[in-house]
Specification:
By secondary structure, this protein is an alpha/beta fold. It has two domains: about 10-140, Rossmann fold (3-Layer(aba) Sandwich), CATH 3.40.50.2300; about 170-370, Orthogonal Bundle (Hypothetical protein af1432). Helix content is about 55%, strand content about 5%. The chain has helices at about 20-30, 40-50, 65-75, 95-100, 115-170, 180-195, 205-215, 225-230, 240-245, 245-260, 265-280, 300-315, 325-335, 340-350, 350-360, 365-370; strands at about 10-15, 35, 55-60, 85-90, 105-110. Helix 4 links the parallel strand 4 and strand 5. The longest helix is centred in the middle third of the chain and has 56 residues, at about 115-170. The chain is elongated, with a radius of gyration of 35 Å. It starts with 9 loop residues before the first strand and ends with a helix.
């Protein structure tokens, strides 16, 4: 009986005895495609090649390379997880048997070989291997599908966040690409600060990613500011400025309500709430809305504060021309220890060329600039 070439499994018989090879080939050929190797080196070449091998019958006592030697060489390839190996031996040595099983062999068949036992074990291990490989493929598929869906959800979240941020910014004609620039300033500054022992425990890669994604929402509370104040071309009165400061509370409270409506607490919300509420707090306690001082101010808000002020100064506004980068750096240095965390300020100034590059890369479009000259 000739095996079905499309369905028959491939059995590799490894034994230095021609009689054993002939015996096993005769037993297996009616059901399987059989390939033989008379020594360990030949067996390894076949197993490591592109030649299909579904199961190996491996003699233990062979010259040069023993069955244990072959298992040892295959142990680092990952093939033992895919190809079952049944050891053949005439020795009554349980230590060898346990050693082979520990090293990755799936079973032991003793010589003289019982045809019924051998055929049953080959069939069983081929079926187990088939199921194991199917499960591995299903696991890989499920992991891929989960990753794909997580990526889709993440993209949806990112788009939603940016849409909300843009909605707030559209009401304030002054801002242009402000949210993009501040987003990148914050990430760049956080990456520079994480080597500082004072910040390294907090500024993990995951936290910096949350900073980058939540930074665009720092002024989300401006949706609660009336147009007569938000769009006023001239200086605000004291009363108007007092009300304008409420945008920090509006932003924080809107994120709290969103979190409550979703009935879940996410790290993203924690960072976004901190930034929205505290990015106008000052190191010396003179900021708003709560007058927090020093390290009472969350690190996320301290980073956002310097990014927000830098961008406001170097950008054109309806009430002012842009200030040169070099001059802004001097102004920020003067605010170290009063408005800004001194250590963050120092790192910002030491790497000011990086922030200037971000400002140039995401500068406002000409049509946005034109509104100030009309």
């Amino acid at each position: 009986m000739i095996p079905d070439e499309s369905a028959a499994k491939n059995v590799l018989v490894v034994d230095d005895s021609p009689d054993v090879i002939d015996l096993l080939s005769g037993l297996l050929t009616p059901q399987y495609r059989v390939r033989a190797a008379a020594d360990g080196e030949t067996a390894l070449k076949i197993i490591l090649s592109e030649i299909p091998v579904d199961i190996v019958l491996l003699d233990h006592l062979m010259p040069d390379l023993t069955g244990i030697d072959i298992l040892n060489q295959l142990s680092t390839t990952g093939l033992l997880q895919r190809i079952p190996i049944i050891m053949l031996t005439g020795a009554e040595d349980h230590l060898i048997e346990s050693k082979a099983l520990e090293m990755g062999a799936v079973d032991f068949v003793r010589k003289p070989i019982s045809a019924r036992v051998l055929m049953a074990r080959v069939a069983n291990h081929l079926e187990l291997s088939r199921i194991r490989n199917l499960l591995a493929e299903e696991k890989d598929f499920l992991e891929s599908e989960i990753n794909r869906r997580v990526e889709e959800i993440q993209k949806l979240q990112d788009v939603t966040i940016m849409s909300l941020a843009c909605l707030a910014e559209m009401r304030d004609l002054e801002t242009g690409n402000h949210i993009l620039r501040t987003q990148h300033y914050v990430r760049q500054l956080a990456l520079l600060m994480r080597d500082n022992p004072r910040f390294s425990e907090v500024l993990t890669s995951r936290y910096i990613d949350l900073l980058f994604k939540s930074a665009p929402l720092h002024d989300i509370g401006k949706v609660g500011i009336p147009d007569r104040i938000l769009l006023k071309p001239g200086p605000l009165t004291e009363e108007e400025m007092t009300f304008m400061k409420n945008h920090t509370l509006f932003g924080h409270d809107s994120l709290v309500r969103a979190e409550e409506m979703m009935n879940c607490s996410l790290p993203f919300f924690d960072v976004a709430k901190q930034i929205a509420l505290c990015h106008h707090e000052k190191w010396d306690g003179s900021g708003y809305p709560r007058g927090l001082k020093g390290e009472e101010i969350p690190i996320s808000a301290r980073l956002m504060a310097i990014a927000d002020v830098y961008d406001a100064l170097v950008s054109r506004r309806c009430y002012k021309e842009p200030i040169a980068h070099e001059k802004v750096i001097e102004m920020i240095a003067d605010l170290s220890g009063t408005h800004f965390d001194p250590e963050i300020t120092q790192i910002f100034i030491e790497h000011e060329v990086l922030f200037h590059g971000i400002a140039l890369k995401y500068q406002d479009e000409p049509e946005h600039e034109a509104q100030y000259t009309q």
